C-alpha cells in the first residue's frame, strides 16, 4: 500500500502547488479576489482570505509529501478542501454564477465538474490519511510508477475543465462572441 499512498501524496502536492503558484501572479490574485467576492465573502475579508487560501494551498502542497510532516499536510489539505468544496457546492446548487480562479488568472464558471475534482481530491486525501500509518518500505521500480501515477492524476485534475470542455463544449465556446448561433 505504500504505492497508493505515494501516488495520492504526489497528486495532492502537485495540484496544490500548481494552484498556489498560479494565484501568486497579480492576475491570479485579482481572479481569486473576484471569486471570493462572488462567493459572498465580505469585502473587508477578501484580501486576507485570498492570502490565507494561497498560503494554505502552498502549505498543504509542501507538507503532504512523504516526510514527517505528511500527516499535518494531509489534515491541512482536508480542511482546505472541505472549505473550498463547500463554497463550490453552494454556488453550483444555488445556480449562482461564480468565476473559478482554481489555478490562477484563467477563470471559468464554477460547475459540477469542480465538485467532481474536489471530491477526487478529498478521496485522495482520505486514502492517504488512512494509509499513512501502515506505510512501509517499497521497491524503487514501483515507487517510480507511483510518482508517475500521481503526476498523471494531477494533470488530469488540473486540466479537468479543459477535458470537460473538449467532451461537452459549452455554447459560449461554439460561438466565439458568446451569443447564440
Weakly predicted, low-confidence segments: 172-181
Please report the number of helical segments.
8
The main sheet comes to: 2 strands, antiparallel
Radius of gyration: 17 Å
Distance between the termini: 52 Å
The secondary-structure element order is: HHHHEEHHHH
| Residues in β-strands, percent | under 5%
- Helical residue percent? over 70%
Mean pLDDT: 86
Secondary-structure-derived class: mainly alpha
Structural description of this entry:
The chain is mostly helical. The chain is built from eight helices and two strands, in the order ααααββαααα. It has a two-stranded antiparallel sheet with strand order 1-2. A hairpin with a 7-residue loop joins strand 1 (99-100) and strand 2 (108-109). The longest helix has 24 residues, at 70-93. The radius of gyration is 17 Å and the shape is globular. Mean pLDDT is 86; it is low at 172-181.
Amino acid at each position: 500500500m505504500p504505492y497508493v499512498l505515494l501516488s495520492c501524496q504526489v497528486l495532492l502536492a502537485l495540484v496544490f502547488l500548481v494552484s498556489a503558484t498560479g494565484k501568486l501572479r497579480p492576475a491570479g490574485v485579482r481572479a481569486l479576489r473576484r471569486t471570493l467576492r462572488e462567493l459572498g465573502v465580505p469585502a473587508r475579508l477578501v484580501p486576507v482570505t485570498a492570502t490565507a487560501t494561497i498560503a494554505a494551498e502552498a502549505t498543504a502542497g509542501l507538507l503532504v509529501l512523504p516526510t514527517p510532516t505528511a500527516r499535518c499536510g494531509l489534515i491541512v489539505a482536508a480542511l482546505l478542501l472541505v472549505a473550498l468544496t463547500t463554497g463550490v457546492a453552494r454556488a453550483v446548487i444555488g445556480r449562482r454564477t461564480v468565476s473559478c480562479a482554481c489555478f490562477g488568472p484563467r477563470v471559468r464558471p464554477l460547475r459540477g465538474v469542480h465538485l467532481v475534482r474536489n471530491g477526487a481530491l478529498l478521496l485522495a486525501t482520505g486514502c492517504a490519511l488512512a494509509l499513512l500509518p501502515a506505510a512501509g518500505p517499497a521497491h524503487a521500480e514501483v515507487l517510480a510508477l507511483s510518482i508517475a501515477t500521481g503526476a498523471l492524476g494531477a494533470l488530469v485534475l488540473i486540466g479537468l475543465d479543459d477535458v470537460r470542455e473538449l467532451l461537452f463544449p459549452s455554447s459560449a465556446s461554439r460561438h466565439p462572441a458568446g451569443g447564440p448561433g
